[in-house]
């Protein structure tokens, strides 16, 4: 992509909001929104940054990658096997290095993250965030890869490229075909976020309503010891907490 600048490739979470889904995908935009709302209240959210949709498009424009991917996907309409097409597309992406400018931007951002945290080679989660994850008529969430415990510049860059490749898992390709969504319409942002020591406590998922009934006045929390991935994947039977929102009010009186 001609004219793409550093600022077009990398965005820090604290500079993002829910309005930036087209720029960094739903997951990363939500992280930015969370930081914007919670940080002023003293609630810490692990730091990080995201590559942009423009950075992904810049990658596809390199070495004819996007053209090769598109031509291979077109063979599905001629009866090609999904597994063969998906494997070929992913292999082509994994064999194509990131453009030097994007590679360098990710490395510099990771180094800056380490400097912000005062540690070398910070452990990070490298996560996929598609620009079409939760649409009114379709949900693409959870179809792409997440890599945990990634350490060092080389590993972060490699994990980012693997996130790009995961936009073309067999499941993701099939779902877009079924939903009649053009593959080039969906872009991918890569989120790089500090990991915290959940092995010393716990992690999980919180919903701001009851997921079964839709009742909006409760907060539903599913949590377990260790990484939240074990809860999301269903690997453990988590503890469940329901908190009635009207009880989340405290008034300090004059008594001592």
Q: What's a quick, concise take on this entry?
A:
By secondary structure, the chain is α+β, with helices and mostly antiparallel strands. It is built from nine helices and eight strands. The chain has two domains: 6-196, Dna Ligase, domain 1 (2-Layer Sandwich), CATH 3.30.1490.20; 199-247, ATP-grasp fold, B domain (D-amino Acid Aminotransferase, Chain A, domain 1).
Write up this protein:
With 256 residues, the chain is of the alpha+beta class. The chain has 2 domains: 6-196, Dna Ligase, domain 1 (2-Layer Sandwich); 199-247, D-amino Acid Aminotransferase, Chain A, domain 1, CATH 3.30.470. The protein contains 9 helices and 8 strands. It has helices spanning 6-9, 21-38, 53-61, 65-74, 82-94, 100-117, 153-166, 170-178, 229-232; strands at residues 10-12, 48-51, 124-130, 146-150, 188-194, 202-207, 218-225, 239-244. The chain has a 5-stranded antiparallel β-sheet. A 3-stranded antiparallel β-sheet has the order 6-7-8. Helix 4 packs antiparallel against helix 5. The longest helix is centred in the first third of the chain and has 18 residues, at 21-38. The radius of gyration is 20 Å and the shape is globular. 32% of the residues are buried. The model has no long low-confidence stretch (mean pLDDT 89).
């Amino acid at each position: 992509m001609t004219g793409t600048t550093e600022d077009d490739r990398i965005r820090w979470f604290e500079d993002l909001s829910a309005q930036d889904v087209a720029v960094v995908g739903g997951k990363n935009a939500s992280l930015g929104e969370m930081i914007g709302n919670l940080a002023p209240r003293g609630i810490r959210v692990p730091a990080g940054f995201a590559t942009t949709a423009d950075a992904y498009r810049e990658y596809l424009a390199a070495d004819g990658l996007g053209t090769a991917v598109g031509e291979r996907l077109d063979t599905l309409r001629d009866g090609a096997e999904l597994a063969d097409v998906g494997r070929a597309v992913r292999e082509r992406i994994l064999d194509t290095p990131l453009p030097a400018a994007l590679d360098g931007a990710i490395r510099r951002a990771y180094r800056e993250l380490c400097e912000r945290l005062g540690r070398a080679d910070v452990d990070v989660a490298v996560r996929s965030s598609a620009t079409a994850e939760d649409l009114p008529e379709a949900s693409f969430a959870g179809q792409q890869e997440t890599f945990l415990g990634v350490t060092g510049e080389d590993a972060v860059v490699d994990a980012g490229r693997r996130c790009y490749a995961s936009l073309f898992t067999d499941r993701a390709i099939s779902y877009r075909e079924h939903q009649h969504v053009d593959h080039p319409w969906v872009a991918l942002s890569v989120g790089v976020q500090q990991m915290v020591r959940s092995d010393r406590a716990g992690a999980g998922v919180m919903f701001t309503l009851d997921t079964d009934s839709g009742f909006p006045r409760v907060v539903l929390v599913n949590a377990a010891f260790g990484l939240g991935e074990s809860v999301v994947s269903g690997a453990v039977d988590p503890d469940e907490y329901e908190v009635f929102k009207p009880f989340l009010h405290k008034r300090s009186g004059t008594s001592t």
